[in-house]
Amino acid sequence: MPENILNRLKDAVLKYDVESAVEAANEVIKTGFDPLEAIEQGLGDGLRIVGEKFEAGEIFLPELMIAAQAMKQSLAILKPALTEGTSIKALGRVVIGTVEGDIHDIGKTIVAAMLTASGFEVYDLGCDTPTSKFVDTVKDVEADIIGMSALLTTTMPKMTEVVNALNKAGLRDKVKVVVGGAPVSAAWAKEIKADAYAEDAIAAVNVAKKLLQ
């Protein structure tokens, strides 16, 4: 039975089947199966394989987006069932969101899903995230990394605002800052004194791992 549920979760992600992933996640709750194991060995294994296929050029962004959506919707069902204090794994805590004024969240959602699949505890703040929300969450969860996304050049200055707010709150030396998004670049990351730039979800995972070594 356990192996069957894990395979169903993994296959749903590999087949880009959001509905089946949600059904399998509900089955996990219904049967009392360990939700942590379901996330790590079911959904996580599936999305890691999808990520490898994307990196190898075997699949493209639309497939990666659907696979990430399957994981996101399943996580919404499974995470509340985790026992108090249970972390997905111990690689690190990441707070991620699209900056204030920007409602694009597809890329950010993929990054969040890939980080979760790779063993990070991820706090996804969604899109149009106020600076105060970033700072408060970093403080509340004692985050190791903050990831900010912007898809509009007009919202990029909000990244600077968040970095400055982290400094003001005395948190900047406690958290690594990673930025990304279509108009964002390594030069911009350097300009605003972020720790790193990630061009896509695969890069974000690699960057996060390096920053916490």
Describe what this molecule looks like in 3D.
- The protein is an alpha/beta fold and 213 residues long.
- The protein has two domains: 2-81, Methionine synthase domain (Methyltransferase, Methionine Synthase (B12-binding Domains), Chain A, domain 1, Orthogonal Bundle); 93-211, 3-Layer(aba) Sandwich (Rossmann fold).
- The chain is 55% helix and 10% strand.
- The protein has helices spanning 2-14, 18-31, 35-55, 61-78, 106-117, 131-141, 157-168, 186-191, 201-211; strands at residues 93-98, 121-124, 145-149, 176-180, 196-197.
- A five-stranded parallel β-sheet has the order 2-1-3-4-5, sandwiched between helices.
- Strand 3, helix 7 and strand 4 form a beta-alpha-beta unit.
- The longest helix has 21 residues, at 35-55.
Summed up, what is this model?
The chain contains 9 helices and 5 strands.
Query: Which structural class do the helices and strands define?
Result: alpha/beta
Stretches where pLDDT is under 50 for at least 5 consecutive residues are none
Mean pLDDT: 94
The Rg value, from CA coordinates, equals 17 Å
Q: What's the SSE pattern?
A: HHHHEHEHEHEHEH
Shape: globular
**CATH homologous superfamily designation of the largest domain:** Cobalamin-binding domain
Number of strands: 5
CATH topology of the largest domain: Rossmann fold
State the CATH architecture of the largest domain: 3-Layer(aba) Sandwich
Strand arrangement in the largest pleated sheet: 2-1-3-4-5
Give helix % range: 55-70%
CATH level 1 class label of the largest domain? Alpha Beta
Largest sheet: number of strands, sense, barrel closure: 5 strands, parallel
Total helical segments = 9
Strand content: 5-15%
**Domain unit count:** 2
Q: How far from one another are the termini? A: 37 Å
Quaternary organization: single chain
